[in-house]
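1st attempt posting a full record on here, be nice pls
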Amino acid sequence: MQLKKLEPWGVVILLLVYMFVKALESVSLSADALLHRYGQAAIRYHLSFDYYKYYLIPQLTIVVVTAIILFILNFRIIAGLLRKRSYFSIAAALVIGFLSVFFVLFVCNTWLRFQLYALYDTKRGANMQLMKESFGQTLLIFLLFIAYYLCKMLVVWLYKEVLKDKPVYKKIAREVIVTGWIWIMLLGFSFVFREYIFRWIPAFVLLLLPFYIALFFLWVYFFLPAFAVHAKKRKLLLSSLLVIIVFGIPLFAIFVGVSGAGRNEGVFFSVLFFMAGLLLMTWLLARFHFNQQKEKGKEIQSLKRTVSQKSADIHFLRSQINPHFLFNALNTIYGTALQEKADRTAEGVQKLGDMMRFMLQENQEEKIPLDREINYLTNYIDLQRLRTQTSPDIAIELTVKDKDCRHYIAPMLLIPFVENAFKHGISLREKSWVKINISCDTENLYFDVYNSVHLPKEDDPEKNSSGIGLENVKQRLSLLYPHQHELHIRSTNTEFFVHLTIRLSS
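the predicted structure (as tokens):
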């Protein structure tokens, strides 16, 4: 869409600027100056020269008519026929356009190249020469036009088809396409107005500007991102300088030879300083663009994190049972257990009540003291011990080294691993074990869960139930502790092991 907007406006602006410059030139320069600039052939062969008749009107006619024909072919005829897949009609349109441009060039060249009629013995000889020149010019124009259109089609196809599922590469491609088209426009301006600017500008735009553009994208999408995270910054800096030296110096040498800047010492050093200044400007622009992208990326990640966190919270809350109903039921069961002197039942109900209060109060906060999270895990494990203590083949071990556990942590972050261990690791009929180790140092939390694995029975009501699940807790870890945690999970048919390290000091 950006290219569709830029393309016609660029052509129109280029054409209008060219016409304005020519009109301004015709009124600002004297007759002698115009004769000296455009009438050298007339002076050489001692012919009379009329600036308007033999240069301005035919030159403007060629440029305007050719631009209009190519404009119509590019934006109207070919685009519409391609949608209909009418390739024969496209070929016919190109032939008609070719003949039209050839006719305009031939007629106008009879005025622009009027001296040929004085050089040839016959008018026919001069006309044949003009036809050859006009045909060659028309052929060159249409070859460039066809090459441009094919390149445009290839770029659009690559953008829409190859990169359609790659948003990052699509963004880079979009910037490259727009930049490349601007370069084409600058190239057109430099060649059209080469008489009014430094003679070396067209050669510079053709040879060196693509190098600066490529260098800009290398800095923005490779060197600067790598420099921000890579430890070997000196190596990256040297790599960037190596690219400039290996590619920049040969291109500069070619440019000096083509443009002729090396013939004059003053011009040479002026160009050299200009190149150095442009190199610095390119780096500053790349740094600015990179920082802008970085800030936008942070904003997008922050929004994604917020949305994902809310989604995870909603998913978790939906998995909970109505707390008011549970508390009323628990109070009733607890009172009944005390009346019946069922101490184990009363203890279990009490611990379950503590867990529910934790879920209602602590779970709504962003961060809680780590010892409260550990206390919640302890209550849960004690409940599981009450359930399984009659089975001698079940081993449940909890080791907590909380000497340095003075950190804060997101609530309900560890419990899914423990729930998963008891869900899949405990069988009342087979030898089972669950081993949990929690320890801390001044910066990190270390959490290990090791359990046996038993496939659930077909009639197990929780066979297909995952609660918040391991995938959900992985998502929470990536959102809450990006680049600040390590999670390793190993499993076999009989064992399951989880090791989690979280940096909590920051």
